[in-house]
Amino acid sequence: MMTEKNKIGIFDSGIGGLTVLYQALKILPDEDYLYYADTKHVPYGEKSKAEVKKYVFEAVDFMVKKNVQAIVIACNTATGAAADDVRKAYNIPILGIEPAVKPALEIGQRPGKRVLVLATRLTLQQDRYHQLVARLDSDHIADGVPLPGLVEFAEKFQFDEKVVLPYLTRAFSGLDLNQYSTVVLGCTHFPLFKDMLQKLFPAQTAIIDGSVGTVKNLKRTLERRQALLHTGSGAIEYYLSGVKVEDEKKVQQYSQLFDRLNRIL
Ligand code: DGL
Q1: Mean pLDDT taken over the chain
Q2: I want to staple 119 with a disulfide (CB 3.0 to 4.6 A). Which of 30, 180, 186, 203 is the partner?
């Protein structure tokens, strides 16, 4: 039974948060990690805010009991639905991730050009997102498109272009993709498809996400609290909705996703 706080908890509805863990392993390689995928309840993006909030509390509670020193909610949908509430309920640092609308609007300020925010349905519906856009997008240049299919594909480890590209083409069929200077990946599952998205937009379109910013924020937070341990080795314990992953094959599948990210990011 471990008693000392010796891990960073990273949490998502499924495997999307591995795109954040991937950056954490690069920026904070000397820490150890607990990765929690709520695969019993994925996709969060198609559920109500109240349901997602309940699941986030269950996951955070589980990780706190495992003595993590900090938690990253590596899910835009869960952050929007519950980050403020879980922060009030626990006294360890709890960080979140939000669609990178602000940097996108800064980069995106090119005459006649627009910004495309890709996220889950629930993220795009939430007040938090509407408030963010209302505050920052005074010229009304941001459009939001939900892509629930990408979450499904990722959970099935389906990265075959022949399957994914037709879905994306259909999802974007009403849009002129040449008008976008910046695309925001506002769901942590989406960087896993960056190579395919890149094929659909002009070469000069920037495709950005908040994962590096979130991990830098985690680093700053832990440094401030002198809580970085520097005694780890990037070891990862995986849990699926509270059940430890013991199957080596499953763990290997996750490492293959890191290899995929290495190739495409
Ligand atoms: N990966 C999650 C996000 O960043 C959501 C995926 C889902 O469960 O719908 O929003």
Answers
A1: 95
A2: 186
